[in-house]
Design goal:
With 276 residues, the protein is an alpha+beta fold. It is 35% helix and 25% strand. The protein is built from eight helices and 14 strands. The strands form three sheets. It has a seven-stranded mixed β-sheet with strand order 3-4-5-6-7-8-9, sandwiched between helices. The chain has a five-stranded mixed β-sheet with strand order 11-10-12-14-13, with helices on both faces. A two-stranded antiparallel sheet has the order 1-2. β8 and β9 form a beta hairpin. α1 runs antiparallel to α2, α5 packs across α8 and α6 packs parallel to α7. The longest helix has 17 residues.
Length: 276
């Protein structure tokens, strides 16, 4: 049992813990997810709850001083944990977990979902991991140490011109003017919607998408994936031009691209379209 902070060298161990949990709690339930609605209208399954319990216990074995903030905790407990982290910049930080990002996909049998785990400390996302369970692809990153896919260095590819780009767009959470403009006069070549925020970020990092826009996502959705993108050389901001991560539980919008120049062009177009 260790009382040290998590380190970049711990990514392999953390990836093993995610795969272990997924093999026990997600894969056996994929054919019969038995979803039910939460009070906020989102889905939850026994896989979500089992993953959170499993990972909370396993992480505590290795880092007992680091608490876990999970999506399936009560809002009151989440706020309490965030306040404690913000009030202790020299403290152990906290794990931020979405035990099954893409639960709607999981319940429908769409094979794009998995856990997202980040370590937040002193107001920064320092480690992040996202596991695509059905493809068995593990994305991870450590602040200042780069991003990886399946243990190999991951860098965003050179950007295409915006008119030839593939965009990942979540229309549901965008304002009507911007959504209408994207639907009727898009500046890119084609559009997709994956249904898992954590994987959205990672697929931009891998160059499978070149552009990204989402209107409102939770900390557990974006913390790990946004670090993967940043460490792979991509760029991101909110629709208001702010950093996406703000060390709070407030929902955040996101604009992202495979490099800074393409993001500037994308953000300029989105700003004009949103005012239309």
């Amino acid at each position: 049992m260790s009382h040290r902070h998590p380190q970049p060298g711990d990514l392999d161990l953390l990836g093993e813990l995610l795969r272990e949990a997924a093999s026990e709690h997600i894969l056996p339930r994929a054919a019969d997810p038995r979803a039910r609605l939460k009070d906020d209208g989102s889905w939850v399954t026994d896989a979500d709850l089992g993953m959170q319990r499993h990972l909370q216990a396993r992480l505590a074995e290795h880092w007992p001083a680091v608490p876990l903030l999970g999506e399936e905790m009560s809002p009151e407990r989440q706020l309490e944990l965030m306040a404690a982290e913000a009030g202790a910049p020299d403290g152990p930080g906290l794990w931020v977990l979405d035990p099954l990002d893409g639960t709607s996909n999981f319940t429908a049998g769409l094979p794009a979902f998995g856990p997202s785990l980040a370590w937040v400390q002193a107001g920064r996302v320092r480690l992040g991991l996202v596991l695509d369970v059905m493809r068995d692809e593990l994305f991870d990153a450590a602040l200042g140490h780069g991003a990886r896919l399946q243990g190999r260095s991951l860098r965003c590819p050179p950007p295409p011109a915006m008119q030839r780009a593939i965009a990942c767009v979540d229309f549901k959470r965008l304002g009507p003017a911007l959504a209408a403009s994207l639907a009727t006069r898009p500046p890119y070549a084609s559009q997709r919607s994956l249904g898992s925020v954590a994987l959205d970020w990672c697929w931009v990092a891998a160059g499978r998408f070149h552009l990204y826009v989402h209107g409102a996502q939770g900390l557990w959705d974006y913390a790990a994936g946004s670090l993967v993108l940043a460490e792979a050389g991509g760029s991101a901001q909110t629709l208001q031009g702010e950093p996406v991560f703000d060390n709070s539980l407030r929902k955040r919008s996101a604009l992202a691209a495979v490099d800074a120049a393409l993001l500037r062009d994308w953000a300029d177009w989105v700003a004009r379209a949103g005012e239309a």
